[in-house]
Write a structure and sequence with these properties.
The chain has about 250 residues and is of the alpha/beta class. The chain is built from eleven helices and seven strands. The strands form two sheets. A five-stranded parallel β-sheet has the order 2-3-1-4-7, with helices on both faces. A two-stranded antiparallel sheet has the order 5-6. It starts with a helix and ends with a helix. The protein binds BIS(adenosine)-5'-pentaphosphate. The site of BIS(adenosine)-5'-pentaphosphate has 37 residues, from helix 3, helix 4, helix 5, helix 8 and strand 6.
């Protein structure tokens, strides 16, 4: 079956499942293989580009993207009691309780798809959350996207979301196509005042996680103060090196 598919796309066609050329197909296979079974935490302050990069990576590596921010916003939209309680914290730029977040993750990791590669976006965000994650899943590595506070406010205040596709845009750094601009929305917590509170929570509760993971030999720092494409290339390089390291150590 594989041979037939391989022959078909190598003679210049496009494969039926993904609609890719031979070169695109082999790149995809390589990427899927690199991310297979990897559980990566994407760490970084608000607006560092975690969501932007995870959306790209989940498409590129066909992997699972678990964003606690997205899960909470879905609960708010559904009007569930948990969502309504979480909304107060989110609007104030504060972290939702560890108990609620860990419950969400435990539930999500029970899905069948969670056995494959996973990208954790915005989780863990405190040492107690990281300790709980250690109990329920093995983290392969942690990629910290590093951006100075000065760059954050502009990124957050200019962010716009497409409610239909979930795509993240920016009024200057990543403008949306003209035909969808009318439907874009701004997150209620994307105000200058709230982002300063969110950065405060980051410095007190989330920043210590970098040292925590570094002490465990899991942290890779990426310069996030560059274009979306440059940051993406650095993250892909990091994933390739993590995958090689794991292969090397498992062969040893
Ligand atoms: P969440 O939704 O996770 O928000 P956040 O952590 O504040 O992160 P952001 O989504 O703001 O930033 P991002 O790094 O994803 O940046 P993005 O790619 O969008 O959480 C929301 C709230 O939920 C929290 O405040 C908290 O209350 C609660 N919560 C969530 N998880 C929790 C947890 N584990 N524990 C407790 N509470 C939790 O990019 C931002 C903008 O910049 C975009 O416009 C983008 O286009 C642009 N951009 C991206 N990269 C670049 C680049 N390289 N150059 C220029 N512009 C760029």
């Amino acid at each position: 079956m594989y041979k037939r598919q391989h022959k078909k796309i190598s003679t210049g066609g496009r494969d039926e499942k993904f609609g890719l050329s031979f070169n695109e197909f082999t790149t995809l296979c390589k990427k899927i293989n690199e991310m297979k079974n990897l559980r990566l935490v994407i760490l970084g302050r608000q607006g560092s580009g975690k969501g932007t990069q995870c959306l790209r990576l989940s498409e590129l590596y066909r992997t699972i993207h678990i964003s606690t921010g997205d899960m909470l916003r879905a609960a708010v939209k559904a009007g569930s009691p948990m969502g309504l309680a979480a909304k107060e914290y989110m609007d104030a730029g504060l972290l939702v309780s560890d108990e609620v977040i860990i419950g969400l993750i435990e539930e999500r990791l029970q899905n069948d798809d969670a056995g494959q590669g996973v990208l954790f976006d915005g989780f863990p965000r405190s040492i107690p959350q990281a300790e709980s994650l250690e109990v329920i899943a093995t983290v392969s590595s942690v990629i910290s996207i590093e951006v100075p506070d000065d760059a954050i406010v502009d990124r957050i205040v200019g962010r716009r979301m497409d409610p239909e596709t979930g795509e993240i845009y920016h009024v200057s750094f990543k403008p949306a196509p003209t035909e969808i601009q009318d439907r874009l929305v701004q997150r209620p917590d994307d105000t200058e005042e709230t982002v300063r509170a969110r950065l405060g929570a980051y410095h007190t509760q989330t920043a210590p996680l970098a040292d925590w993971y570094s002490e465990r030999g899991l942290l890779i720092r990426i310069d996030g103060d560059a274009s979306i494409e440059q940051v993406g290339a650095s993250v892909e390089e990091a994933i390739a090196s993590i995958s090689c390291c794991l292969l090397y150590t498992s062969d040893a």
